[in-house]
Amino acid sequence: MTNFPTKILLYTDGSEDAALAAPVVVSLAEKSGAELHIVHVWHTAAPFAPPSWFRDDAQRRLDEEIQHIQNAGGTVTETHLRKGHTAEEVVNLSDELEADLIVVGVVMGVGAAERKILEGLSDDIVHHAQCPVMVMRTREQTEAVR
């Protein structure tokens, strides 16, 4: 990576907390002149719902994140909708794009079991990515885990 990233990959799960990363990522992309890519990963979690429902929901969440970025004054270079294991898909996409930075928003306003899953996701991305990973959280979120 050079001094500033030229390609930033933002992972979003479509949550409000993950959207907190939008203004920071927009500012970083603008200041560095970096391309901004957004990825959302979906999978079929329930056997009774058709896969198209999950894909449509994932596209809606991705569209909402694009709106957050645009509302913060940013421009999205490309969006990526992937199906599969989230950390694996994010890391693979960052390799394909030759991203210089991955940004992940942390969702802390959930129950203990969900928090463990999400922390595991961030850890997986951090440990397997070939580039730096920025994990975004608010001051309140940071204090909540202390």
Descriptive account of the structure:
With 146 residues, the chain is α/β, with parallel strands linked by helices. The protein has a single domain (7-144), classed as HUPs (Rossmann fold). Helices cover 49% and strands 19% of the residues. The protein contains 6 helices and 5 strands; from the N terminus they run E-H-H-E-H-E-H-E-H-E-H. It has helices at residues 16-19, 21-32, 51-71, 86-97, 112-128, 139-144, and strands at residues 7-11, 35-42, 78-83, 101-105, 133-136. Strand 4, helix 5 and strand 5 form a beta-alpha-beta unit. Helix 4 runs parallel beside helix 5. It is globular, with a radius of gyration of 15 Å. The N and C termini lie far apart (32 Å).
Distance between the termini: 32 Å
Strand order of the largest sheet: 3-2-1-4-5
Estimated helix fraction: 40-55%
Poorly predicted ranges (pLDDT <50, ≥5 residues)? 141-146
Tell me the count of domains: 1
Total beta strands: 5
The topology string of helices and strands comes to: EHHEHEHEHEH
Supply Rg: 15 Å
Average pLDDT for all residues: 83
Q: SS-based structural class? A: alpha/beta
Number of helices: 6
Question: DSSP strand (E) fraction?
Answer: 15-25%
Q: Architecture, CATH level 2?
A: 3-Layer(aba) Sandwich
The major beta sheet can be summarized as: 5 strands, parallel
Q: In CATH, what is the homologous superfamily?
A: HUPs
Indicate the CATH class: Alpha Beta
**What is CATH's topology name?**
Rossmann fold
Shape annotation = globular
